Amino acid sequence: MALPNHLPSVAQEPSVQNSQATQCRLDAYLASALTGLDSGERKYLFEVSDAVAAVCAHNNVRLYEPRNVTDPVHHTTVPDSEVFRTDRHRVINSDLLIYLAHHPSTGAGQELVFAQESIIPILVVAHIGTRISRMVTGIPGPLTLVRYDSITQLTAQLDQEITELQPKLLQRRIALAELEQHRVGARIKELRELRNMTRRQVAESTRIPNAFSPEQLKQWEQSSDKVNNLSLTYLQEIASALSVSVKDLV
């Protein structure tokens, strides 16, 4: 899909200030409704998705689209738990989340939570005639609303927003680089083994019943701090089960 000739000059000729961010390939996640749409709604949404993908490619941003991997229509054999893990992993490892707010979606709502908790900038895209939940527009953190009346207008506006965001996205990636380390998970495993406890024993020792499963604990032990992104509540439960303090885990 060709970009319109009237794109702002700042998008066609990136400044020296933006060159470093432009040269570094960034990652974006496209969140949208996929479940419960009729054929006409899917067709239009995919047209908008294609426009977003073209703008991202123009700005050297690699766009992940769940419709190509976990679409409820075309990928029905993918287990529910795998859909959750895949989409969460993709969101958390993205530099930007683009949300198409054309139809209500509990799945996309969950993805917005993942992004907000990881301080991932969010671009909310919606037609000017679409009403958007205030639970979306009220999300604290870096959020930008992109309204459009035509695909051409959407392309131009989105290109400008992504161009302006690139330096900030690169700065965020550099700032969070240390979270790629595997400190908390390794510490949990170390303390668990020092106490000769199995993962099941740890899971069964929490104050909150069924706070997490042995399988979830295994994933935490094996994943980076960025992927885990453990909340204080989870850390408190893990610490309690291991008879240590939260500071011993971090």
UniProtKB/TrEMBL annotation:
GO terms for molecular function: DNA binding. It comes from the Bacteria. InterPro entries: Cro/C1-type_HTH, Lambda_DNA-bd_dom_sf. Residues 188-249 form the HTH cro/C1-type domain. This is HTH cro/C1-type domain-containing protein. It comes from Streptomyces flaveus.
